[in-house]
Amino acid sequence: MDSLRPGLVVTLMAQHFTLRQRLGRALWRGFSVMFIGLLIANFLLLLIPTPHLHVCSIPISILLGPIVAIFVFRTRVQLAAAEIPCPRCAAKVMVPDKLGGWPARFNCQHCAIMIELQAAL
């Protein structure tokens, strides 16, 4: 019956990203994932010279970059690290640093419930 409890109101520092910042972060993260994936694929080809590894790893690296970029682009806000009380057990819970997205979700380390942070309207 935890859903019947009133929500707690806490104030956290949040960094809101503009469209330009979101696009820049997404492009940077997408290209870096593609570059690192291709670097690892070519290094593995030198260590294990099998064509199957090379044929599969290059398309996976090329497809993984845009997928990661889409998820990074969807993040509109980033929260700073803070301590908040758990709604169930009232223990202090650390909000992970650079937690992104609305609603932001993470688990309590003590009672393992899902804590959801939403923007105040």
Give the key terms.
3-stranded antiparallel beta sheet, 43% helix, 2 helices, 121 residues, alpha+beta, 2 domains
Report the principal-axis shape.
elongated
Q: Into which percentage range does the β-strand content fall?
A: 15-25%
Number of domains: 2
End-to-end separation: 25 Å
Radius of gyration over all CA atoms, rounded: 20 Å
Number of strands: 7
Look at the helices and sheets and give the structural class.
alpha+beta
Query: What order do the strands of the largest sheet run in, or round the barrel if closed?
Result: 1-2-5
Separate helix tally: 2
What's the pLDDT, averaged over the residues?
Answer: 84
Order of helices and strands: EHHEEEEEE
Percent helix: 40-55%
Q: How can the largest sheet be summarized? A: 3 strands, antiparallel
Task: List low-pLDDT spans.
Answer: none
Describe what this molecule looks like in 3D.
- The chain is of the alpha+beta class.
- It folds into two domains: 1-16 and 77-121, no CATH class; 18-74.
- It has helices spanning 19-47, 51-73; strands spanning 14-16, 77-79, 82-85, 92-95, 99-100, 104-107, 114-117.
